[in-house]
Amino acid sequence: MIRWFKKKKGRPEVDSDQVQEQFDGDVVPEEIPAAIEPIVEVSELVVEPEPEVSTLHVAEIQESAVSELAAAVADEIGLPAELEDEAGKLSETGDESVSHPGKPGLFRRLRARLSRTREALTSKLDRLFLGKKIIDAELLEELEELLITADMGVETSLGLIEAVRDKVKRKELTDPARLKTHLKAEMLTLLTGVAVPPLHPGKPHVVMVIGVNGVGKTTTIAKLAHHDLEQGEKVLLVAADTFRAAAIEQLEIWGQRAGAAVIKQKTGSDPAAVVFDGLAAALARRVDKVYIDTAGRLHTKVNLMEELKKVARTAAKQIEGAPHEVLLVLDATTGQNAINQARLFHEAIGVTGIIMTKLDGTAKGGVALGVVQETGLPLQFIGVGEQMDDLRPFEPEAYLEAILG
Ligand SMILES: Nc1nc2c(ncn2[C@@H]2O[C@H](COP(=O)(O)OP(=O)(O)OP(=O)(O)O)[C@@H](O)[C@H]2O)c(=O)[nH]1
């Protein structure tokens, strides 16, 4: 189930210098040429590019690949859930078909991809509860610490513990063995409690994708486009990350893989100009959906947030209500930093939804809870690998089952 949301009105402003400091690094800026080359459209498949080099550690990839393979083998030969787990060391207990009737294969893969987070969380929780007979203040304090160190964010962890403490006070919860179940229920309430703004789609529907360097914006756009194309939609990609030399080329490669046309200009062009022309092309070609790829870092003298705001204003000049969505891509492996980024981008630009990538390569998957709780934004998609179909709509129950199951 895919939800699309309209941008919120009346967003608070933020000190953009402060925001810029967050993202400016010590990168030597490239020289930005003033001339803007004419638009070039990529319409034909030319070369089959080499696969991207992953940012993940080799051992992590191998671990994930082993889990994946075990799941696939189990699927193939139809082992019962308990034996699959035994064979692939995929999970500790439970028959997933009970909690996820109708799509056990999909859930099994999600579970395999989130194995690092699950292993980290459940082993710590089990150790904490081991031999405990009562839920006392000390146990709750240790649990609070565990959640914070699991990258859920301080505010979120305190909120979850407070809810559990209330249940203990009301004597609804007394047995430490039941703590995990109650915690999971509180987490589900948190994840499903986010107010979902109504959808106001445009024609074409314009989606601006933002986020810092390397979080997975470009590949995520390709995955979204791939999904839309499979639904029979006509999709156009706009390469508005004109700062990084390889970014345009990368979008072209991914556009070719997904089968979507790309509108681009020369490196160093004004991103707003690329968007203006890109949306004119989108209107002329009557496409259904436009994805705008934006920069995650700019020339050190240019304020990233101001540039992104300008891109959004320019989009609105071409198409009423555009961008209809602003999706922020966050890298789960950055843990607590992802929460800070979400807050800053939302305050500056106004984000409508979050996409969290690289959940397959990290034990920090709990950060999804922190991001939702501390921004009040819906988590719409999660990235669990580098292939085209490794982007999934976020389903809170399946996610919690996969990390705590
Ligand atoms: N394991 C894993 N890798 C991912 C995922 N999403 C993206 N990646 C990888 O992350 C790396 C960076 O992705 P890009 O799409 O280039 O990131 P970007 O945000 O566009 O980066 P810039 O263009 O530098 O701003 C690539 O190697 C991707 O294959 C994911 O869900 N899981």
From TrEMBL:
UniProt subcellular location:
Cell inner membrane; Cytoplasm; Cell membrane
The catalytic activity, as recorded, is: GTP + H2O = GDP + phosphate + H(+)
Gene Ontology CC: cytoplasm; plasma membrane
Q: How does it sit in the membrane?
A: Peripheral membrane protein
Give the GO terms filed under biological process for this record: SRP-dependent cotranslational protein targeting to membrane
Positions with biased composition (Basic residues): 1-10
Residues forming the SRP54-type proteins GTP-binding domain are 378-391
The alphabetized UniProt keywords are: Cell inner membrane, Cell membrane, Cytoplasm, GTP-binding, Hydrolase, Membrane, Nucleotide-binding, Receptor
Q: Where does GTP bind?
A: 211-218, 293-297, 357-360
Give the compositionally biased regions (Acidic residues): 15-26
Q: Name one GO molecular function term.
A: signal recognition particle binding
Q: Name one Pfam family in it.
A: SRP54
Q: What is its main location?
A: membrane
The keyword Chloroplast appears for this protein: no
Region called Disordered, residue ranges: 1-26
Q: What is its EC number?
A: 3.6.5.4
Could you tell me which PANTHER family the record lists for this protein? SIGNAL RECOGNITION PARTICLE RECEPTOR SUBUNIT ALPHA
As for what it does, the entry says: Involved in targeting and insertion of nascent membrane proteins into the cytoplasmic membrane. Acts as a receptor for the complex formed by the signal recognition particle (SRP) and the ribosome-nascent chain (RNC). Interaction with SRP-RNC leads to the transfer of the RNC complex to the Sec translocase for insertion into the membrane, the hydrolysis of GTP by both Ffh and FtsY, and the dissociation of the SRP-FtsY complex into the individual components.
Q: How is the quaternary structure described? A: Part of the signal recognition particle protein translocation system, which is composed of SRP and FtsY.
Q: Which family does it belong to?
A: Belongs to the GTP-binding SRP family. FtsY subfamily.
Q: Which HAMAP family match?
A: FtsY
Protein name as catalogued = Signal recognition particle receptor FtsY
Q: Which gene encodes it?
A: ftsY
